[in-house]
Amino acid sequence: MRLTVIGTGYLGAVHAACMADIGHDVLGVDTDSGKIAALAAGRAPFFEPGLPEILIRNTRAGRLRFTTSLQEAADFADVHFVCVGTPQRADSLAADLRHVEAVVDGLAPLLTRDSLIVGKSTVPVGTTRTLTRRVTSQVRPGVDAEVAWNPEFLREGFAVQDTLRPDRLVVGVTSPHADRTLRDVYEPMLRAGVAYVSTDPATAELVKVAANSFLATKISFINAMAEVCDASGADVVTLAEALGHDARIGRAFLSAGLGFGGGCLPKDIRAFLARAEELQVGEAVSFLHQVDQINHRQRRRTVDLARHLLGGEFAGRRVAVLGATFKPDSDDVRDSPALAVAAEIVAQGADIRVHDPEGIDNAQLVLPGPSYCTDVMEACRDADLVLHLTEWRQYRALDPVKLSQVVRAPRMIDARNALDPALWREAGWHVRALGRPVHVPTPGPGGTLRVTIPQAGGPVSTAPTPGDPLSGAPK
Ligand SMILES: NC(=O)c1ccc[n+]([C@@H]2O[C@H](COP(=O)([O-])OP(=O)(O)OC[C@H]3O[C@@H](n4cnc5c(N)ncnc54)[C@H](O)[C@@H]3O)[C@@H](O)[C@H]2O)c1
Ligand SMILES: O=c1ccn([C@@H]2O[C@H](COP(=O)(O)OP(=O)(O)O[C@H]3O[C@H](CO)[C@@H](O)[C@H](O)[C@H]3O)[C@@H](O)[C@H]2O)c(=O)[nH]1
Predict the structure, then answer these.
(1) Within 233-314, where are the H helices?
(2) What are phi and psi of 300, to 5 degrees?
(3) How many Å lie between the centroid of ligand 2 and the Cα of residue 268?
């Protein structure tokens, strides 16, 4: 089949390449000519594992082409996927639909054949209905254009495999023709047994927003438990493991730490809150305000713990920041918890050096102040504190002994609960993490294990100390 994919960012570039990979003739369209030039040359304009390979394969095979021309798109196919951004509005929690509207306003008058416009962007429930009116009022006489919604559930870092082997396909359609067309598009997946849920557009739109709200709620739930762990001496990692053994709960999305960020979960729960208010059911989903607040509190708790470990002041202290992206295996820094923490400690006077395997270019655009290092050792040189903020696998492979030789003081906050604390402590590191008790293997006098920090001098207690922001110990 011939398809167009309009909007070739993190979602659209992958969708276009994967649709070509399953045999369709695909034309990708974007207003960003730099992105289109890169894609046309078979180069991924962002870091996504597996994307370069399928881009090269399919552009070379002639099944995948790119353009900035909507006219070319209208001429090329009668099935058009819309994958443009729906960010949070600057003036409210609501989604900004201007890009989606620009696409349908641009495309509808150009259509000369009956067409199907399939939205994949994440939109507020009710959008398909509004867009249908918009399209119908702009198409030429005699041309029939239907709008359907087919939300996307891919995760960055796994985008190619999630697109080629999704957990489910959800389509919101208003005619048997649209349903048949989408079944044809996804025929290889359906043959492989992927679940296909065909429903009305409102339900399809809502599935997406509900899924992201549920995932965000799970993360904030475990982060709320982490706070209770800090107050009571319990361990959130063991708690999550034990909860996860219950098949009704599951271990996924129960990793406590710095919380969620990215271009999806944060703005999607806020847009849902705004849409629910419009529908006068704001109270029904008002818990999402708390989900958002709990999430942001983890950033503040991490900054507070860092300041505490540095003796109450960031000024004059050097801090190494490991990780800038919102998650590993992506270069995306949109609403990155790591960068938010980095920005705050810079604002409080720390001298920071940031390392990230793939996100430095994007991070520099958002937070231009700090030094960025391509080498972890360089980032950690003379650091008074190391913050592990994004759990890239490279950081799990670090040698704590070697790293302890370059820092000023071997202090670490593992804000993603992803490192092996025993390994780091054996190498002389003082390791702290949200939701985890301070590990005291052999209590010394007064129940306090003392570790001598080389170079910087001064003992660091691994037991809770007065004013410790995570401590449940009496102050
Ligand atoms: N990123 C993800 O993992 C993911 C997953 C599922 C759903 N989504 C949803 O998909 C949508 C896109 O997200 P994204 O992360 O790919 O955003 P993005 O910003 O990476 O990509 C959007 C692209 O649309 C282009 N664009 C904007 N206006 C255009 C227009 N009028 N015509 C053509 N192109 C235009 C931009 O230049 C950009 O390349 C959002 O609604 C998002 O919530 C994203
Ligand atoms: O147990 C967990 C799991 C995730 N996160 C954080 O949550 C954020 C989002 O992670 P993830 O959901 O894996 O990344 P995204 O690529 O943003 O994917 C989400 O958002 C996409 C866009 O809507 C959806 O398509 C996906 O299904 C949905 O998982 C990241 O900051 C993670 O660090 C945690 O803190 N703890």
Answers:
(1) 236-244, 265-278, 287-309
(2) -65, -40
(3) 12
Examine the residue annotation and report whether 229 is marked as an active-site residue of this protein. no
Between the CA of 181 and the centroid of ligand 1 the distance, in Å, is: 23
For residue 393, the CA-to-ligand 1 centroid distance in Å is 27
Q: Identify the bridge partners of residue 355 per DSSP, sorted by sequence position.
A: 322, 373
Q: With a 6 A CB cut-off, is 101 part of the ligand 1 pocket?
A: no
Q: Among 381, 382, 415, 423, which residue's Cα sits nearest to residue 399?
A: 423
At 472, is the pLDDT very low, low, confident or very high (cuts 50, 70, 90)? low
- Predicted pLDDT at 458: 37
* Ligand that comes closest to the CA of residue 271: 1
Burial class (CB in 10 A: 0-12, 13-18, 19+), 246: exposed
- Alpha helix segments (H runs only) across 10-97: 12-21, 33-40, 51-60, 70-76
Tens of pLDDT, residue by residue over 290-305, are 999 999 999 999 999 9
Residue that the structure tokens 């594992």 belong to = 49
Q: 391 in helix, strand or coil? A: coil
Integer Cα distance of 253 and 334 in angstroms: 19
Give the number of whichever ligand sits closest to the CA of residue 207.
2
Note whether ipTM > 0.95 here.
yes
Task: Return the pLDDT at 43.
Answer: 96
Is there an atom of ligand 1 within 6 Å of 93 CB? Answer: no
C-alpha Rg value of the chain to the nearest Å: 25
